[in-house]
Amino acid sequence: MRHGDAVPEEEAGSDRDRWLSPRGREAARVLGRLLREQALELDAIVSSPLPRAVQTAELLAAALDYLHPIATRRCLEPSAHPRVAAGELATLGGGVIVVSHEPAISALGAFLLGRPSFPSFRTAQCYALEDGKPTWTARSDIGQLQPYFVQ
Q: Which of 1, 17, 54, 89 would bridge with 12, disulfide CB 3.0–4.6 Å?
């Protein structure tokens, strides 16, 4: 998934330091409720170490009653290469929520599926990948889960 809406770079001082805006916090909570309804069985929640991603992961963990530590990985930062992230994620189990940024998160989706590209993620949007294919997307902006159709 992609992190929620963040404050502008001018307010934070740098892109790396941006934190969730009030709108981004609410969107992460909405997404958490949508995911909770799916009764996900999680092995891990892993996040980019940037504040907006960590805060999104924490809000999701709270909504999902996930009590384990949230792992942070530099390989999920915005300019990271998807091959490195895929290698690290493979060690975490089958039920993993990944919180990252564009363009890294859509590049990771494409890499995992063996495709040249994957749709860009909106803020606070996630895609479910099951058995090597995308099955649904959850979007906080419309507050619903939708089946994924190959584009």
A: 17
